[in-house]
Specification:
Blueprint lengths: L8 H12 L2 E4 H8 L18 H6 L6 H9 L4 E4 L5 H14 L1
Parallel strand pairs: 1-2
């Protein structure tokens, strides 16, 4: 999944999960993990820049390829839910998916 924050990516990926039985990796959860917050916390306001500044400032894909790879290698369909604003982030995830399928 890719697209600007707040445009419905997570809602759509939730629907897909129910149909294909996939594992979903959420960049929001990974961002919380980086800051030692529980995945279910709604306290993004506790993070610098509301939690998004860290990711933007470092230009990183917050869904680690190793985590995605492990799920794919185990035979699970995977949905990575992140903004993927930079082409390189999209390409690396696409390459990983193609190499594993």
């Amino acid at each position: 999944m890719r697209g600007a924050s707040g445009t419905g990516n997570t809602v759509i990926s939730e629907s897909l999960l129910e149909h294909v039985g996939a594992i979903r990796l959420l960049s929001d959860v990974e961002r919380k993990r980086l800051h030692a917050l529980a995945p279910t916390t709604d306290r993004f306001w506790l993070l610098p820049g509301g939690g998004h500044q860290h990711a933007r400032g470092h230009g990183q894909n917050l869904c680690p390829p190793a985590r995605t790879d492990r799920a794919l290698q185990a035979g699970f369909p995977v949905i990575v839910d992140a903004t993927f604003l930079k082409r390189g982030q999209r390409e690396s995830s696409r390459t990983l998916a193609q190499e594993t399928s």
